[in-house]
Design a protein that fits this description.
8-stranded parallel barrel, two-stranded antiparallel ribbon
Length: 299
C-alpha cells in the first residue's frame, strides 16, 4: 500500500515550490507527481509552470522520492520529443521517473495550439497510436514510424532509460480502448473514478463504479494473457463524490483509503493543499496523514 501526492505547479521554484518537493520527500511519500498541462481549470489565469522543467528541478533537489506526471497527454505532446525529455529526466533522477499518461480532454490544452478540440473518438485514436510509438521510442535505439497522426524518422534515443527496459507507464483509462492500452503497455493503471458518478453520485455508488472499472481492466488483461495482479492500480483522489473530505482528518482518510485498498488499489494519491482552491486543506492534517496513515492502513 503506497501513499503518494500531487504537487500542482503553481508556485515559483524559489518561492515555495522547491520546499514542497523537499517536504514531500521528508514526509515519506512514495511518489510526488505533477499535472502536465499548459494550464488547468480554475488555475488558468494564475501562475502555472511546465511539468518537465519542474520535475527536472525536483529530481536535482531530492534523492529518494519517485517523481512523475499525472498525467501527460497527446493534447500538446509528440512522442518523439516527449521520449527525449523523458530519457533525460530518467537520467537526471537516477531512474526515479514514472510517466502517467492519458488520452487528454477538452480543456485549455485541447485548443491552445490553434486546433479544434478532438472528438472522443479522435482522442482514443490518437492515444492508441501515441502509446505504442512512445513505448518503441523509449526501448529502441532508432525508430522509424509513419502513422496516421504521428511519425518518426530514424529517431535516436541513445542510451535509453536508466530504468529497463524503460521507465514505467501509469495509464489513465476508463474506456475499452484505453483499458486495452493499460493492459498491454502499462505498469500501472490510473483512475479518478467514474466521471458521471463523481458529479451526482454517492461515495458508495462511486466505489461500485470503480469496482466495475477494475473488472473491465481484469478482462482486458485476461484477453491478452496478462496477469492482472502484475498491474499496479492507482487512485487519484479529489474527484470522487467524497471530494476533499478524506483530508479533513486522519480517521477520515484511513477510512477512505482502507475502503479503496480493499477494492484492489495499491497506491492512493492525494493533492498537496492549495489555499483558496478546490484543493484547500489543512497542511497539518495533510502531513499527519502522510506520516501516520500508512502504519494504520497496514494493521
Amino acid at each position: 500500500m503506497r501513499l503518494s501526492t500531487v504537487i500542482l505547479p503553481v508556485r515559483p521554484w524559489h518561492d515555495g515550490g522547491r520546499d514542497q518537493w523537499l517536504r514531500a520527500e521528508q514526509l515519506g511519500f512514495h511518489t510526488a507527481y505533477t499535472y502536465d498541462h499548459l494550464s488547468w481549470r480554475t488555475f488558468r489565469d494564475g501562475p502555472w509552470y511546465g511539468a518537465v522543467p519542474t520535475l527536472t528541478a525536483a529530481a536535482a533537489a531530492t534523492e529518494r522520492l519517485r517523481l512523475g506526471t499525472l498525467v501527460t497527454s497527446p493534447n500538446f505532446r509528440h512522442p518523439v520529443t516527449l521520449a527525449k525529455e523523458l530519457i533525460s529526466l530518467d537520467d537526471i533522477s537516477g531512474g526515479r521517473i514514472t510517466l502517467g499518461i492519458g488520452a487528454g480532454g477538452i480543456g485549455f490544452d485541447a485548443t491552445a495550439l490553434g486546433q479544434e478540440a478532438w472528438t472522443p473518438r479522435e482522442r482514443a485514436d490518437r492515444f492508441a497510436e501515441f502509446v505504442p510509438l512512445l513505448d518503441r521510442l523509449l526501448t529502441e535505439g532508432g525508430v522509424t514510424h509513419e502513422g496516421t497522426f504521428y511519425s518518426a524518422v530514424e529517431a535516436r534515443n541513445i542510451p535509453g532509460c536508466v530504468q529497463r527496459p524503460r521507465l514505467p507507464f501509469a495509464i489513465a483509462a476508463t474506456g475499452p480502448r484505453g483499458l486495452k492500452l493499460a493492459a498491454g503497455y502499462g505498469q500501472a493503471w490510473v483512475t479518478t473514478g467514474d466521471p458521471k458518478v463523481n458529479e451526482t453520485g454517492t461515495p458508495e455508488q462511486s466505489r461500485e463504479a470503480i469496482r466495475v472499472q477494475l473488472d473491465k481492466l481484469s478482462k482486458a488483461c485476461a484477453d491478452i494473457g496478462r496477469d492482472e495482479a502484475d498491474l499496479e492500480k492507482i487512485l487519484l483522489t479529489g474527484f470522487t463524490p467524497d471530494r476533499g473530505r478524506p483530508l479533513e482528518s486522519l480517521d477520515a482518510f484511513v477510512d477512505f483509503a482502507g475502503r479503496h485498498f480493499a477494492l484492489g488499489f495499491s497506491e492512493i494519491v492525494v493533492h498537496a493543499p492549495i489555499p483558496d482552491s478546490d484543493f484547500a486543506a489543512d497542511q497539518a492534517v495533510f502531513e499527519q496523514i502522510a506520516t501516520e496513515a500508512p502504519a494504520q492502513l497496514r494493521r
